Amino acid sequence: MVMAQRRFPAEWEPQKGLLLCYPHNGKDWPGKYGAIQWAFVEFIKKVSLFETVYLIVADAQQQQTVADRLDRAHVDLSKISFILQKTNRSWMRDSGPIMVHSNGKPEALNFNFNGWAKYNNWQLDKKVPQKVAQHLNTPITQVTYNGKKVVLEGGALEVNGKGTLITSEECLLHPTIQIRNQGFTKADYESVFKEFLGITNTIWLGNGILGDDTHGHIDDLCRFVDPATVVTVVEHDKNHKNHAPLQDNLKRLTAARLENGKPLTIVVLPMPRPIAFEDLELPASYANFLIINGAVLVPTFNDVNDRIALNILANCFPDREVIGINCIDLIWGFGTLHCLSQQIPQ
Q1: What pTM did the predictor assign?
Q2: What is the DSSP string of 18-71?
Q3: Active-site position among 171, 222, 327, 339
Q4: Domains and CATH numbers, the chain
């Protein structure tokens, strides 16, 4: 039996398309569902200008409704590939399959989504990886370790495509809160990363940002923009609760090394000013940007730092269009563009 040689491609590598899921119940955005439906249309439209959108809808009726909305917004429907599957939520970064290269061929990985070890309604979401793999005609593998299913979300994993992965201790190693894999150590996770993602080097950051429902996902904190360069968010207000943990993450990155032993090039991104809605501070972060073929889509928040973040990322991606997308409504669901999507590599 030949062992699979797997590699998790970096997000900037050529993509076959992008997986999205049109929301059908709005429970992640209570009171804002109307606005969210049109925010999704705008998101889909922007992606469709650059690549195919693989769009999950609940059923044929919703497909027709969504197609009508997209048509009203002048979206080229030939760029939309509909997948019919009921879901609990729309966060494809976490419930969707993670697509890797296995011996040079595409493979879908099912990382056994369980509602971030927090919610109990994920039984529909757990069917998404199989359905997507079937639609793409791609083999799918259930991720296990020592005979047990492994639970991981794509939002917890950031890779450079060369063997280095960045994740956070808060998300994967907290002893009492949202425990994905009981008893797992760093060594256990690193074994899983190596076997299923081709990772030889793991960088562990500390804690995530305030209000993060996932308890420390890396895609709100730190992202690769090329094989040797990361952008990482910092909070300039020393009185804000995010200041200390983000400074700690910056120190860890400064001390870290890549798979080739070299230090990382580090670019600092600001945080937007705090966004509160009802009684919550929301986890708004410019690090939740999305890289697609030819473009980078960046969440914006009607904030003075929007322009600064867009300029920083434009310098990081000189060969791509850098486009801001207003996420002031989307963030009420505790995530934005990257959380909602999952790239499908060529």
Answers
A1: 0.96
A2: EEEE--SS-TTSTT-HHHHHHHHHHHHHHHHTTSEEEEEESSHHHHHHHHHHHH
A3: 339
A4: 8-345 (3.75.10.10)
